[in-house]
């Protein structure tokens, strides 16, 4: 199982970023996918999740209405569109998949929201 995040960077408050997570090594279209984030000194928190076919999504209260998770099963890729970014969104963002009770993670991509 391999997960590779990209798309992070430095953005001003109110700006947008689109994160991507390219996957391999498992049947992507059969698996629920999640995005997490971890800010310095804080625990990793669940940001969003999406069902295998993309018909069901869930979000943390802190990002509802601002972030959108989506997936392209033909490309084995999950996305996180982040709008109206706030300084408190600053964190390393990870995508994750759980297979046979084991959580797999990418290396993460840094998102910094600052003026």
Could you name the key traits of this structure?
mainly beta; 115 residues; 0% helix
Explain what you see:
It is a single chain. The chain has strands at 2-6, 9-11, 17-24, 33-38, 45-50, 57-59, 67-72, 77-82, 91-99, 102-105, 109-113. It has 115 residues and is mainly β. The strands form two sheets. Strands 2, 4, 5, 6, 9, 10 and 11 form a seven-stranded mixed beta sheet that branches. A four-stranded antiparallel beta sheet has the order 1-3-8-7, with no helix packed on it. The chain is globular, with a radius of gyration of 13 Å. 30% of the residues are buried. The model has no long low-confidence stretch (mean pLDDT 97).
**What is the N-to-C order of secondary-structure elements (H for helix, E for strand)?**
EEEEEEEEEEE
Query: β content, as a range?
Result: over 45%
Give the number of DSSP strands: 11
Mean pLDDT: 97
Low-confidence stretches: none
Give a short synopsis of this structure.
0% of the residues lie in helices and 53% in strands. By secondary structure, the protein is mostly beta strands. The model has no long low-confidence stretch (mean pLDDT 97).
